[in-house]
Amino acid sequence: MTLGPYQKLSRTLLVIMILGLIYVTAVPFGLIVPKRYHAKWERTELVPFYPNPGARLTGFDTVANILLFLPLGFFLHGWRKLRRSPEPVGLSQTLLLAAALSTSIEVVQFFLKDRFSSINDVMFNVVGAALGALAAHYLYEKALARAFRFWQLLTARPGLLLLAALSLCYLFWMLLPLNFTLAPHNILRKWVQWQYSLEYLRSLFDKPYTLDLREYWLLVAVEHLLYGLVIGQVYALCARWYFPPARRDYWLGVGMLFFGLALLTLLQFCVIGGNPDVLTLLSVSGGLAGGLLLMETLTRHHAPHLPLGFNYYTEAALVIPYFLFFLLLVLRPDLPDFRVEIPALATNGAQSSMVADFAQRLLLSVQPEILRQGGSAYLRLFVKLLAASIFLVFVLLYLFPQHVRHTQLRERLYFIGGSVLFGLAAQALRFWLWRANVSLIAVAAITSGVLLAASLANWWRNENILGIKSSEHSRIA
User: Fold this and answer.
1) What residues form DSSP beta bridges with 469?
2) CB half-sphere exposure, 50, CA atoms < 13 A
3) What is the pTM of this model?
4) pLDDT, tens digit, for every residue of 184-232?
5) How many angstroms separate the CA atoms of 461 and 457, rounded?
């Protein structure tokens, strides 16, 4: 085993795991006021296995804490083992590092709303890290080798990487802010919501709003339908490009996509935010099935001279739905993520101009009191706009293959400036049409998506990070 690329992948996986762990344990990010420190200290569990009144030492919480640090122990011990190979690596140092991280998290949780510090959490976290470290002692090198081969497969087949990115964005979209819990009362509450959403389907045409009265149900259904349509189309294209004779594998992949939707619904029962809804599941499932059928029909005839390798209808069918998805997100006047109370803007008793109003609303959108009103909805908005921008720019750059190269500092600055202007123009259009609220978070999401898409396109036109040259089969879906 050549250690260089494996060590890089091992370090990257460990960093992702630590960042994800910090995020999950810090949700919902709200700080308590100093006058509540005394009350919070009284609820802090300092004695092992002795919960304070109102605290939560339960079987579900114990299992959750063990499972939370099990992947960390696996990746941490595996990284240490690979980094010091062939020297022996002791388990005690891994557990000390895991205990230090767990203790740091508990200290931070003391200052956060809806979080409680406990010595029991540290103990069970260390137990989970120990189990993960033991698994890494026997399985890490094999698991890392398989992960490396899988990454090579994705980078050699960018269509699969795009499919994975779209699926991951939809996962975050539906589960953010990723505040997981196995508490029975929460699962029961979500089950009641699920049953009510099923009954609610009978009265959809009598009520314009969704189950939680936040937005119009028809727009929600169209949004998920378009997203599912594109995922189905990208998967069908990947099957045509990379595995044309393997029809059995094709249907196996289709089954995995629909199984993933069912698993996503089950995960929604285990998060605090977000509501499992039959309407969204039916919409994305219908879009997925429609995308598969549509692309299967359009890709029967090959056209090697075209960018996607098939007819023009294939390219239109891939671009138009996601372009509509992007416009729906940017231009909707009722977007719930922007439904926050913005103070009336006036100067010396007279209404300010439209340009000044737009600029002031952008600045107000990142004020702490405004961000608190939006809550986790801003996270979902960022993920949706980021995914829409990446896919839209990615496909357009490939269909119209002007070379995007920004290696010089001046070129990079021009491109970054153009991306920011594109995000501002998208928000300005929405504001001009509806006088609706706007947000710098949306501008940042669109800008990030444009920059990332162009960077990936430039990356694949040259040489990927693993040193595998792009081939004629490495098309961008």
Assistant:
1) 463
2) 3
3) 0.80
4) 888 999 999 999 999 989 888 888 888 877 778 898 899 999 999 999 9
5) 6
